[in-house]
Write a structure and sequence with these properties.
Radius of gyration: 30 Å
Oligomer: single chain
Strand content: 5-15%
Amino acid sequence: MSYTIETDRFLNNLEQVARVRSQVAKSLGEIAQTLAQWEASVKDTSGSLGLERDIEDLSRASQTLQQTVFRILVLGDLKRGKSTLLNALIGENLLPADVNPCTALLTVLRYGTQKKVTVYFKGDNSSQSIDFVRFKQTYTIKPSEAKRREAENSLAFPDVSHAVVEYPLPLLEKGIEIVDTPGLNDTEARNELSLNYIHNCHAIMFVFRAMQPCTLEERRYLENYIKGRGLTVFFLINAWDEIGKGLINPDHLDELEQVQNRLRTVFKTYLADYCKNDGQDYYDQRVFEISSLPALRRRLKKPQDSLEGTGFPPFLRALNTFLTQERAVAQLRQVRTLVRQVYSRTHAAIERRIPLLDQDIEGLKQRIQGVDPEFEQLTQIRDQFREEIRTLRDTNVKKIVNSFQTYVLNLETTFESDFFPYQPTIDLLEFLQQQKRETFNAALKQALEQYLQDKLAAWERTAEDALKEAFSQLAQSAANYGATYNQVVDSMSNKLIGQTLPSRVPVDSGEESPTWTKWAMGFFSLASGNIASVALAAVGFNWQNILVNWLAVVLTPLGFWNPLGLVLLSLGVGAMQAEQGRQAVIKATKKQFVNYLPQLAQEQQEPIRKAVGDCFERYEQDVIQRINDDIQSHQIQLENLLQQKKGREINHQTELKRLRQLDSDILAQYWQIESLYEESGLIPG
């Protein structure tokens, strides 16, 4: 199938998703407005139903749907053709692609009615608008400067945060936002800018070059920052068309095919593990052989070119499937869950209110007092869950801090073999020159920093695994507490009105739980891909976002390091061969490094303790507040009715009509959203 057909289909699907999201967002806003108007109209009525939290959730969900874009992060080493690939994807020679390492800034490409570049600065949040020519001239760096900054581990533009390029392109107009990053091995400081975007993107495009399969730097980043994090990554093997250039006879098809198959084997060996999720193998849906430069040339010459043979049509098809049939559907399902729960809560509040309208003040007081034991039980459930959260917090803080200390102190055991791939090459003839010695020492320091950062990243995954287990346990506890909580609420309804209140709308498995339970289970649901309402309002708990800067917290500058003096001492007169020199450097480095490890382990105890504790404390704060709001909502429903009865005469027939109308209005708006889903075909019933 041609690229043109795939592009049209992709744009149409994106437009459909955007249209449905906009319509659903409007309906969510209307439900929130209807409920808000009811809560505000207390004169001569039976009073508030305590639905403020539901109104807030609906409003935030509506706003999130309206603002949602599909954000794609582009990662890759230097000179992999990232900008050329993006230019071919969007069909214009927009991003600078003729310098190394292209732009020196993280660049966000989004839709705008006018062509515009805005550079944002750190600290004071100021910005500067410039044209494309000046942007390219100012914020790209020469290869010599790139190498120098790699050695210095410094940023070319330390005061700049990022750049935003706005452009009137159809792909961007339909809700795609692309984050183009500098090269992975440019500098460690710059890498942090790229990696901090990982958890805020919906998909990652990791770009390789066919004739440089999986370099050490690429494997390092895959292992440290991609593996085991549940990210959706499309691996694009660029410049596939250049494979034949290295052959004596490029027209010899059998020889070309043999080389291509060998490269496919190499890439699959390295990438297969990153294409598996929950036991499923997605390699064929995630790895693509791309020829960006020929594709760009063809699109510039003929915008409607099919691009057959460049690898772009199958890649676009896979990206389309993921964004519009997987990611969008998951978000819309979350919204449907939220709406169902809001209507169920509203309906239950109305059905409890109606039978109590005829009660006199004394009779109503007695009924309210009769459910005091139930309110006490709800409070006990809250307190028990809070205590479990705190117990798990204390256990995991201690466990993770201890694991860090043990891990760091044990680095000594395998240092020589682990550090071997990082160490710079020693040329003794060059080393006799003072300038060369300083260059070598700078490279050795950077190598040690990379080694330590990689080691800490490996430990970080073990800490994340511990947190996953802890929050999965809390998710299960939340489900159990939620089931007990519902039983108490049913008991309360039986005492107040003589019956429990079944749902009037379809309920999926788990949706009958209290709303706070879904939020408390948010981490588990997101991790497993189950339906949840946690992410859509952008306020749900996500411990990974709290720890996105974990390494920045843990990794401190290597202040102990004095490489020049160390190397001069370690290389004596007898070190006349490179291998002898290498071994001497490693031994001296190890000695100084090992002396530093206890200091590192000690200094980082408190930052790690705080980082882990913050995860649980944020979770406790969010979930307990929601439980409190839910308990208070039940209390408000009863207390407001009693206060209204004390203060004025309520017209029972008028109020009954109003309550029934509210129920009918919210139910109609709910079914309107369901019909949008059905008509769109995005979500099966």
